[in-house]
């Protein structure tokens, strides 16, 4: 395998002097093959060669960061089958969206630790259902410790990429995230410019404020439509213009657009020519990470689908190669092993 000898730490902290193979960030772990945000998913991702593992972070009632995609946990745990928690089912408005279920902020950490994780997409990832009800919910501390232990065991830097979920909402219910998060980073020794971490958020204000308190690299997430929950007057489309990317560079080191913003698709779902985002971001001094490469046909562009079954796997490695050729610096994937396969073929073809 031809691969530049550059650690995740080096690529996260500073712009590489020469072109490098993109980092692979395991999206919620190897979540295509194990229920997301579980120890099993993170460990498999590291085994498959991921450079970085991602925990989405929400808060418990007692103010502890736990790794869940959303604060609503009815679809990712066994809480709906637990009669002792039946009365806690409720409806809330999260970032303008009415959502019903069970919410982490209504549980203490001790209560959440009695729950077990389940596959979020059981109709798509049927094989993952076999791993339901095995793993407990992890705290951010536990995910960071897992990465640290894996780094020592493997001899390569395994970084973490925590995403702060819904900080404006959590602040509105008396659970502001930022002070708690900075205290957590200080405890873990993850505040420095060279820390093996990449901190993400769809909102703008939390990143701007964190940039004045810590030196760790930050990433502004960019959705394919809409606007940040804390800046509804500022669309994501405006944020990825050359001018908007320049503003992001004032507080973040990375920009993280949804992948079809970098490789747009036509009406038939085929990938077209790359947009200007990568070139404009690099010109502004930003690195680019795209999300999220998934193996199922339902998530792939038409040219990489195989067969008619939406849940069957297409040629995700080829799609990752297409993304790599746009010059992106990192790729989020639910299937880090397949992403690694795609990147190895790019490296093998590079003189």
Automatic annotation (TrEMBL):
Reaction catalyzed: a sn-glycero-3-phosphodiester + H2O = an alcohol + sn-glycerol 3-phosphate + H(+)
InterPro entries: GP_PDE_dom, PLC-like_Pdiesterase_TIM-brl
Signal peptide residue numbers: 1-19
KW rRNA-binding (keyword) present: no
Superkingdom, natural source: Bacteria
UniProt record similarity statement: Belongs to the glycerophosphoryl diester phosphodiesterase family.
Protein name, entry field: glycerophosphodiester phosphodiesterase
UniProt organism field: Brevundimonas albigilva
Classification of source organism: Bacteria, Pseudomonadati, Pseudomonadota, Alphaproteobacteria, Caulobacterales
């Amino acid at each position: 395998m031809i691969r530049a000898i550059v650690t995740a730490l080096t690529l996260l902290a500073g712009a590489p002097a020469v072109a490098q193979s993109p980092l692979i960030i395991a999206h919620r772990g190897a979540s295509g093959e194990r229920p997301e945000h579980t120890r099993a998913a993170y460990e498999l991702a590291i085994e498959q060669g991921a450079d970085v593992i991602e925990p989405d972070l929400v808060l418990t009632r007692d103010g502890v960061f736990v790794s869940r995609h959303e604060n609503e946990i009815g679809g990712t745990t066994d809480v709906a089958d637990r009669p002792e928690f039946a009365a806690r089912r409720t409806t809330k408005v999260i970032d303008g969206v009415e959502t019903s279920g069970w919410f982490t902020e209504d549980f203490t950490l001790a209560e959440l630790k009695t729950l077990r994780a389940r596959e979020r997409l059981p109709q798509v990832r049927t094989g993952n259902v076999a791993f339901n009800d095995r793993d407990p919910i992890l705290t951010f501390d536990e995910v960071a410790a897992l990465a640290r232990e894996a780094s020592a065991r493997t001899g390569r830097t395994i970084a973490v990429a925590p995403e702060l979920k819904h900080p404006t909402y959590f602040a509105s219910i008396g659970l502001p995230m930022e002070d708690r998060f900075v205290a957590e980073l200080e405890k873990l020794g993850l505040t420095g410019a060279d820390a093996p971490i990449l901190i993400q958020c769809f909102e703008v204000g939390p990143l701007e404020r964190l940039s004045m308190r810590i030196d760790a690299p930050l990433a502004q997430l960019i959705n394919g439509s809409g606007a940040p929950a804390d800046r509804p007057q500022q669309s994501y489309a405006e944020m990825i213009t050359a001018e908007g990317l320049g503003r992001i560079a004032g507080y973040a080191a990375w920009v993280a657009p949804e992948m079809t913003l970098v490789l747009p698709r036509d009406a038939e779902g085929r990938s077209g020519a790359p947009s200007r985002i990568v070139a404009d971001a690099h010109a502004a001094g930003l690195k680019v990470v795209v999300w999220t490469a998934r193996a199922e046909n339902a998530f792939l562009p038409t040219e990489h689908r195989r067969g008619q079954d939406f849940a069957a796997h297409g040629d995700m490695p080829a799609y990752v190669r297409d993304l790599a050729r746009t010059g992106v610096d990192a790729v989020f994937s639910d299937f880090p092993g397949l992403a690694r396969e795609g990147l190895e073929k790019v490296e093998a073809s590079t003189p």
